[in-house]
Amino acid sequence: MPTRISLKPSAKQSLQREHLQQAARLREYAASTTTPRLKQRLLEAAAEQERLAAEVDAGRLNPLTGARRTGVVGRPRVSHPVDEFPRMQG
After folding, report:
1. How many domains does the chain have?
2. pLDDT digits 0-9 by tens, 53-67
3. 64 closest CA partner among 13, 1, 7, 3
């Protein structure tokens, strides 16, 4: 289960507002475009911005990196170069 990020209310609201404003701009562009393919891409991008705003609201989005919080703590395992090659039979 993702962990929640604790943000100051003003920072959280600012980030959420930024995503919602971007979604609104994309929808305005989509309304004024004439090509169906571009309109579809703009509406998909707007939906993605709204999804990101919802993730910020739920505290599941890292505001510094834009990455989802997974709840995993610690350093990732780095494979040793020897592990990447098959062992020699001898």
Report:
1. 1
2. 998 888 877 666 556
3. 7
Quick one: tokens of 18?
């930024």
Q: Say which DSSP state 85 is in.
A: S
Residue 28: band (very low, low, confident or very high) from pLDDT cuts 50, 70, 90:
very high
The two tokens of residue 36 are 């169906």
- 53-80 burial code (b ≥16 CB/10 A, e <16): bebbeebbbeeeeeeebeeeeeeeeeee
Distance separating alpha carbons of residues 40 and 37, to the nearest angstrom: 5
Closest alpha carbon to 47 in 16, 68, 26, 18 = 26
Q: Has this prediction a pTM greater than 0.90?
A: no
